[in-house]
Amino acid sequence: MVTPTGAVPEVGRDAGSVHAHLLNLDRPFYLVRDAHGIAAAGSAEHAPGAQVLAAVPPLPPSALGDKRFRTAHGVRQPYMAGSMANGIASARMVIALAEQGFLASYGAAGVVAQRVDEELAHIRARLRGIPFACNLIHSPNEPAMERSTVDLCLKHEVRTIEASAFLDLTPQIVRYRLAGLTREAGGKVVAHNKVIAKVSRTEVAEKFLRPAPEAMVRELLASGAITADQAEWSRQIPVADDVTAEADSGGHTDRRPLVVLLPEIIAVRDRVQREFGYGQQVRVGAAGGIGTPDAAAAAFALGAAYVVTGSINQATVEAAQSWETKRLLAGAGVTDCDMAPSADMFEMGVEVQVLKRGTMFAARAKRLYDVYRAHDGIESIPAAERAGLEERIFQRPLDEVWQDCVRFFQERDPEQISRAHDNSKRRMALIFRWYLGLSSGWSISGTEGRVADYQVWCGPAMGAFNNWVEGTYLAAVENRHAAELATHVMRGAAFTSRVNQLRLAGARLPARACSYVPAPLDSGAWRNQE
């Protein structure tokens, strides 16, 4: 970039021309002074005597972030659509995004094994070799689900797993990673099974940045899950290829600020890299709060190798979410979120961020957790309080709910019922998790009479996105397609980055020229994203 020797006077000509030149991302942008004043141009050839005051090079969206992310995952953009549990990040969404060159993760968390099997087979058949990912969520209370997801990913040769909500490494995530290790003729160890770890704490990030724990590797070797060669090669590679710094997001989140978390994790990555000297440095991406071009540009400016979106994709046409819920999301503001107990880690007190506007789920889920902490079992709850729970939250007797739990877990994970047989506190937890689990299902199906109980995972990015697209064609939920949103976020991030480069050079641009406003994309703009 050519930088001026002093402050550049404000552009005095048509702001529309400045905006058009900046938006032409494949060409350089020049700020020039000629006999008529300050103007924008897209070429270095100007009228005689014209002076170039500042310039920025071409910046197509694919040039943002780390090109190694694109190469490693076989995509055209340093952009990932993160998984949304219960299949909300649907096969349809994954296919739509992957076909346009974006990495997308199927939301396998909470989905029964048979359906995951069917969906992965469907995605593989439709994409015919185009890369995609599948979510593996840490399931300390349901280890069978974690194991079956890994089994199915290995069966269908899913080459990327997005690991989320992990508090520590588990044998299953390590098994997936090591089962894909081979060694080339030159001796280089190659990991065919890639892991993208989504974390919000540095101590968890470090576990994924280091090689797999020796004790865990030995156990996997003894069980026959990996070979002796793979056990030996495991010392040469980290558990993850990519670590996503997850800031204030929907679902599982520590609500950390991205400007604090991302540099922290990059620093940990650099320290571990110096210690082990890996042949390929682990990439660090950014998630949480990214729903607009400005947020994506800020993440790239902080050093993110790629960006991950979540909440905004839940309100797209391809999301397996009811239209009732999508419209609730489209009406959300940045402050319309709250924390509530999670279904998968209820007993541990882990919370998830959910939509507050239009639903009472957060308040009701918190009440259940308070009751759980205060009593030793369902039988210990005072009669009046129990009646209130049955009438206003469960809308049925708790004894009936327990029978539903028995039927559910007999098919899914019978050990859950065995563990609760002589444990009243455990039975109470499963009954309360019945509500927490079904509440997201009611949201997905649009169950009438249960709107107040919808559990909708949502972060502040949703409100930021809604504010950005207000008054544009994307204000209507029916126009929100996941790949089109991704294209706008990335084009807008490149545009915003060019504006910021000029500002750093001292250029004063008209305010009207500095905003990326989404307009309908023609087929060329959608598909030509290189």
Could you describe the 3D structure shown?
Residues 1-7 have low confidence and may be disordered. The protein has 530 residues and is α/β, with parallel strands linked by helices. Helices cover 43% and strands 13% of the residues. α4 links the parallel β5 and β6 (133-137). It has helices spanning 15-23, 67-73, 91-99, 113-127, 143-155, 171-179, 202-209, 214-223, 228-233, 258-276, 293-301, 323-330, 361-374, 383-394, 398-412, 415-420, 424-445, 461-469, 482-504, 523-527; strands at residues 29-34, 37-41, 51-56, 79-81, 103-106, 133-137, 160-164, 181-183, 189-191, 194-199, 242-246, 251-252, 283-287, 307-309, 337-341, 351-355. An 8-stranded parallel β-barrel has the order 4-5-6-7-10-11-13-14, surrounded by 6 helices. The protein has 20 helices and 16 strands. α3 packs parallel to α4 and α11 packs across α19.
Shape: globular
Q: Beta-strand level of the residues, as a percent range? A: 5-15%
Summarize the amount of helix as a percent range: 40-55%
So how many helices? 20
Number of E strands = 16
How many angstroms does the end-to-end distance come to?
21 Å
Oligomeric state of the chains? single chain
Q: Write down the overall mean pLDDT.
A: 92
Instruction: Name the poorly predicted regions.
Output: 1-7
What's the main sheet like? 8 strands, parallel, barrel
How do the strands of the widest beta sheet line up side by side? 4-5-6-7-10-11-13-14
Structural class: alpha/beta
Radius of gyration: 25 Å
